[in-house]
Automatic annotation (TrEMBL):
Gene name for this UniProt entry: rpiA
Source organism of the structure: Roseovarius litorisediminis
Residues that coordinate or bind substrate: T33, G34, S35, T36, D89, G90, A91, D92, K102, G103, G104, G105, K129
Keywords: Isomerase
Source taxonomy: Bacteria, Pseudomonadati, Pseudomonadota, Alphaproteobacteria, Rhodobacterales
Known function: Catalyzes the reversible conversion of ribose-5-phosphate to ribulose 5-phosphate.
SUPFAM superfamilies: D-ribose-5-phosphate isomerase (RpiA), lid domain (SSF75445), NagB/RpiA/CoA transferase-like (SSF100950)
Active site positions: E111 (proton acceptor)
Chemical reaction(s) catalysed: aldehydo-D-ribose 5-phosphate = D-ribulose 5-phosphate
One Pfam family of this chain: Rib_5-P_isom_A
Source taxon at top rank: Bacteria
HAMAP family: Rib_5P_isom_A
Name of the featured protein: Ribose-5-phosphate isomerase A
GO annotation terms (biological process): D-ribose metabolic process; pentose-phosphate shunt, non-oxidative branch
Its EC number(s): 5.3.1.6
């Protein structure tokens, strides 16, 4: 499954490999999105095919759903699952309190719904994702297309009163077209540099009409499994 891996891929792989040890027979598992989460889905698929592990997976994106089916994981919806035993997902940044920025892959809405509906959320990350203060990675927010430019202006105005360094807001693009999420929405990336009060920012953003969800995951993650390029793994 792995062949010769670059250090970054090795870090992602070893974190994923360790995290799937938390998954037991019969569990309903939230399946994250992104390159690290893809390793986790492949590892789980191997356990299903070769060890007879019986799980049902709730994917957080169409990309992950396709991969999960491809590797042999039974895919169900969150409504069919009702509740999940564990979700394993990647992150763009995590801090010492295990608060996260997610949404680099544009799947933050389903990811947050799924993680919140889980007994446990495990984040898998390479060591480059660890930060003292969140915000160097642009914070994604999902906004509905209707009036998105007005929403963008209102978000820029709102940021004036927030404890952040930068205030630039850009629309995420895919080539020449706006990036469209699985839910048919747009993504705005907030270039904040440093987020002094993630809890407050998350609450204020979500109060704005037009904003569906933001990529700050506060008090949701329980464990971070951190992989290094030399194959070491640490748990936070
Ligand atoms: C997708 C996400 C991803 O988990 C996050 O962007 C990390 O991705 P990668 O593992 O590829 O670095 O939040 O919306």
């Amino acid at each position: 499954m792995t062949g010769e891996l670059s250090p970054i891929d090795k870090a992602k792989f070893v974190a994923a490999k360790r995290a799937v040890e938390f998954v037991e027979d019969g569990m309903r598992v939230g399946l994250g999105t992104g390159s690290t989460a893809a390793w986790m889905v492949r590892c789980l698929g191997e356990m299903v095919r070769e060890d007879g592990l019986k799980i049902r997976g709730v994917p957080t994106s169409t990309r992950t759903a396709e991969l999960a089916r491809e590797v042999g994981i039974e895919v169900i919806t969150l409504d069919e699952a009702g509740w999940l035993d564990v979700t394993i997902d990647g992150a763009d940044e995590f801090d010492g309190k295990l608060n996260l920025i997610k949404g680099g892959g544009g799947a933050l809405l389903q990811e947050k719904i799924v993680a919140t509906a889980s007994d446990q959320m495990i984040v898998i990350a390479d060591v480059g994702k660890e930060v003292e203060t969140l915000g160097a990675f642009p914070l994604p927010i999902e906004v509905i297309p209707f009036g998105w430019q007005t929403t963008k202006l209102l978000v820029e105005e709102l940021l004036i009163n927030m404890d952040v360094l930068g205030r630039e807001v850009t629309q995420r693009m895919k080539g020449d077209e706006p990036f469209v999420t699985d839910e048919g929405n747009f993504i705005l990336d907030l270039h904040l540099g440093r987020i002094g009060n993630p809890h407050q920012l998350s609450m204020v953003l979500n109060q704005m009409p037009g904003v569906v969800e933001n990529g700050l995951f506060i008090d949701i993650c329980d464990i971070v499994v951190l992989g290094y390029g030399d194959g070491r793994v640490e748990t936070r």
